[in-house]
Specification:
alpha/beta, 5 strands
Amino acid sequence: MIGNVLRYLKAKYHVDLPGKSAPATSHSVIRYSDNPSSREDTAVAIRIVRLGSDRLTGEGLRIGTVRRPPRGVLKSEYASKNFYDVWLPTLAPSPELVKLALAAESPQDWKRFVTREMAATNGSTTLDMLAALSHQTDFSVGCYCADESRCHRTVLRQLFIERGAEMKSLGS
């Protein structure tokens, strides 16, 4: 199914999709139009965010890459309370990896989590699809962790960059 989506995006938007067949680049020029001869260069990208934080102008769709929905919040309020518009738990660490991350006390412990998390999600066609979509529209991906340096968001950022996704920092 996702392979079909990737082929459709490649044909419709004339985008070289990152993955096994094409080398990933860290920056790309993005275009919206269906007509290749009348395209304007428009920068669009993925932002990595903390769920529940204020949204930035132009942030686009907010995707929650968390194992569980926010506690004590009605499903109808997830978006209005700035958690997420779409829930994508397949990009969240497994319960075992969350335990490993929370128990990490040293840089070596954290590196062990990062290595296992990258191995667990690296082959994901979902990541390939989102990297390709970053060349067409703005959206954000996030989780609840207060410290991004000790969060799977850092792993997702690296995996997106490796796939040639267009990334934006929070301030841009």
